[in-house]
Amino acid sequence: MTDLMSILSTGNANIKLEITGEDLRNFSEELISRAVNEVAMVMQDNKQDCLLTKEETKKRLGVCDATLWHWDKKSYLKPVKVGSKVKYRESDVKKILGVQNKSFGDYGKD
Questions:
Q1: For the chain, how far is it from start to end, CA to CA, in angstroms?
Q2: How do 85-89 and 51-53 pair as beta strands?
Q3: What is the dihedral of CA 22, 27, 31, 32, to 10 degrees?
Q4: What is the rounded CA–CA span in Å between residue 26 and residue 4?
Q5: Comparing C-alpha atoms, which of 64, 45, 44, 46 is closest to residue 54?
Q6: Is 64 exposed, middle or buried (0-12, 13-18, 19+ CB in 10 A)?
Q7: pLDDT single digits (tens) 29-87
Q8: I need a labelling partner for 84 at 20 to 30 A (CA). Which of 8, 19, 55, 95 fits?
Q9: What would the pLDDT profile of 32-43 be if each residue is shown by its tens digit?
Q10: What CA–CA distance (Å, rounded) separates 107 from 110?
Q11: What gap in Å lies between CA 88 and CA 90, rounded to an integer?
Q12: DSSP letters of the chain?
């Protein structure tokens, strides 16, 4: 069987295919496998990185809602939507704190 995914990705919009049941089963298994792998990668990333609430983030960074909004618009600190909740990656917050500590700690050392 020719790889069905390559046919679909390189073909025109008006394609007529004649496939066997076995080909269709293989195609569906490949799609499911890809989806499972993508979800597993996202879940692994989330396990390694805790998500902070908006209030926890503001407290750790010492900023207000307006600052978080501006940082989001400038892609400085992007929130993660979990349903209708807004969360922030702890690693992103730590990066900002590290940058702030370096810039404040190195001030006047020349």
A1: 68
A2: antiparallel
A3: 0
A4: 9
A5: 64
A6: exposed
A7: 988 998 888 878 777 766 667 889 999 999 999 999 999 999 999 999 999 888 888 99
A8: 95
A9: 998 888 878 777
A10: 8
A11: 6
A12: ---HHHHHHHS-SS------HHHHHHHHHHHHHHHHHHHHHHHHHHHHS-EEEHHHHHHHHT--HHHHHHHHHTTSS--EEETTEEEEEHHHHHHHHHHHHHHHHTTT--
The structure tokens 């293989």 sit at: 26
80-82 and 85-89 strand pairing = antiparallel
∠ at Cα 51 (104, 86), nearest 5°? 100
Q: Which residue has the tokens 């190195």?
A: 106
Amino acid at 98: G
